[in-house]
From TrEMBL:
Molecular-function annotations in GO: methyltransferase activity
Region (Disordered): 225-245
NCBIfam families linked to this entry: Lys_methyl_FliB (NF038110)
Name listed for the protein in its UniProt record: Flagellin lysine-N-methylase
Keyword list, A-Z: Cell projection, Cilium, Flagellum, Methyltransferase, Transferase
Gene that this polypeptide is encoded by: fliB
Keyword Methyltransferase: yes
GO biological process, one term: methylation
Keyword Transferase: yes
Domain of life per record: Bacteria
Top-tier EC class: transferase
Biased composition (Low complexity): 225-234
Entry EC number(s): 2.1.1.-
């Protein structure tokens, strides 16, 4: 069998002791009951038997199965089994089979869409971040041998297809990837369009939706009526359902308009033409909305709307700074803490006025755009494409929430990158080689991925910040304008 992977993951090879930020530090690593049992069997009678017994302990939260045990750490936060050569002593002596799933698979992220295994990558690995961000063809997807995924049996099932939310997930995801790749408009306008598309789908396409089943039921009833009346007409969804959907959609759109901007041109996806005599099924409505965002005119209209929208940048700067301060208090990694302190200092200190910090950021953003705009665009485009592949939106409460999380993560990385001391110095010496910018970008994206993006406190913060429905979209606008 074959799996699929973006090209940068097909190229990935662990650089082990040469890595500048080993994955054997700073992470809590669980081990499954089966791997723990195999390891104990392999080390039985050897000098490592006592070490394994002492350094792997039952999960303090009482978990079993895949999370049964926790690998111990040294005082410096490194794995207790990391040797003096920065290599895993267990793998060196007993082979890859004894490793916990996380150690074996990382930085690969395995998901199973139906029967197809997909392998994306975590940018928490410096080498993965390099390969993903810097190669122009990094996100081209291609087939790879399934064994390259190492342990495909641990892939999470994200789209079983037994409900409408997952049955249509791949279609929606492909539309998201196409939209992100539309270079006719700036990257921020694509993110804005992604949010609008998610809002347009949100009142009938969500976890647990019954709109598709009800539409199918009404379609079946219509077909029965057609057969008995010998009348030729298209199947209709229930009028009550359609009316309630239209009402909810109109209310959502009005709320966003009121909070975001006073006037805008109507888009075709937000309401059916008043003269249209038939009612759409949920499936055909989904297809129509996705198709609308393929339109050059739609993207141009959304770009113009975003350009015309004036929002203060202080709230965006305040959000980014708050995220870093929160993680600074919880993370012990010297690499992370050193960079975060430099970033704070570059914006006037950890408690700098957000409006003043925003003005510094905006000035740097414009200067970097004039020097290396295309290169920076590639970083953030690849990050976004990888995010869609690496974080299935089906795990979010809604498609709009998934888009919000993508934009929030991109905002924090942008803040860190423009506050990176190497980037600040580069802007003062425009002749600096682009390789300096590349190195700073790899560090910024990797450090944020490792110590911010997956942290439970960050995810809780993101959920609280996002709110729900129209509120989420209005707050998304603040983040998009910051980018």
């Amino acid at each position: 069998m074959t799996a699929s992977a973006p090209r940068y993951m097909a190229r990935f090879r662990c650089i082990a002791e040469a890595c500048e930020d080993t994955c054997c530090a700073g992470l809590t690593v669980p081990i499954s009951e089966s791997r723990w049992s195999l390891l104990r069997e392999k080390v039985a009678g050897s000098p490592d038997e006592a070490r394994v017994a002492a350094l792997i302990t039952p999960n303090p939260e009482g978990a079993t199965g895949q999370q049964a045990g926790i690998l111990g750490k040294r005082a410096d936060g490194h794995c207790a089994f990391l040797d003096e050569a920065k290599l895993c002593s267990l793998q060196r002596r007993y082979g890859e089979a004894v490793l916990p799933d996380g150690c074996s698979v990382f930085p690969r992220v395995l998901t199973r869409w139906g029967t197809q295994v997909e392998m994306a990558g975590s940018l928490a690995c410096p080498e993965t971040a390099r390969l993903c961000l810097l190669a122009e063809d990094a996100l081209v997807r291609e087939p790879v041998p399934e064994e390259q995924a190492l342990r495909p049996q641990v892939a999470r099932q994200v789209a079983a297809g037994d409900d409408a939310w997952t049955a249509h997930a791949d279609t929606v995801r492909e539309a998201m990837l196409r939209l992100l790749n539309r270079r006719e408009v700036p990257f921020a306008a694509r993110l804005y369009a992604l949010g609008r598309m998610a809002l347009g789908l949100g009142d009938f396409y969500f976890p647990g939706t019954t709109a598709f089943a009800l539409a199918a039921s009404h379609a079946s009833a219509s077909e029965t009526e057609e057969a008995s009346a010998t009348a030729a007409r298209e199947p209709m969804a229930g009028p009550a359902l359609a009316a309630s959907e239209a009402s909810r959609h109109a209310n959502a759109s009005e709320a966003v308009d009121a909070s975001a901007f006073a006037t805008r041109e109507p888009l075709a996806d937000f309401a059916l033409d008043a003269n249209e005599s038939r009612v759409e099924t949920a499936g055909s409505r989904l297809v129509r909305i996705l198709r609308e965002y393929e339109s050059v005119d739609t993207l141009a209209s959304l770009h113009a709307q975003l350009d015309a929208l004036e929002l203060p940048g202080g709230p965006w700067a305040g959000i980014c700074g708050a995220v870093l301060r929160s993680r600074e208090a919880a993370v012990s990694s010297p690499r992370f803490l050193s960079l975060v302190r430099d970033v704070h200092a570059s914006y006037g200190g950890s408690n700098a006025n957000p409006d003043e910090a925003w003005r510094l950021h905006a000035t740097r953003r414009a200067a970097l755009e004039s020097l290396h705009g295309e290169r920076v665009h590639q970083y953030f485009l690849h990050h976004a494409l990888n995010h869609v592949l690496r974080h299935p939106f089906t795990e979010a409460p809604s498609l709009l929430n998934a888009v919000f999380l993508l934009v929030l993560r991109a905002s924090v990385v942008r803040w860190v990158l423009l506050g990176h001391p190497a980037v600040v110095a580069l802007l003062e010496a425009p002749g600096t080689p682009v390789s300096t910018l590349d190195a700073a970008a790899v560090e910024a994206f990797q450090v944020v991925a490792k110590h911010v993006e997956q942290a439970p406190t960050f995810l809780d913060f993101a959920r609280g910040l996002a709110g729900e429905g129209p509120e989420t979209f209005a707050r998304l606008l603040i983040l998009v304008k910051g980018l």
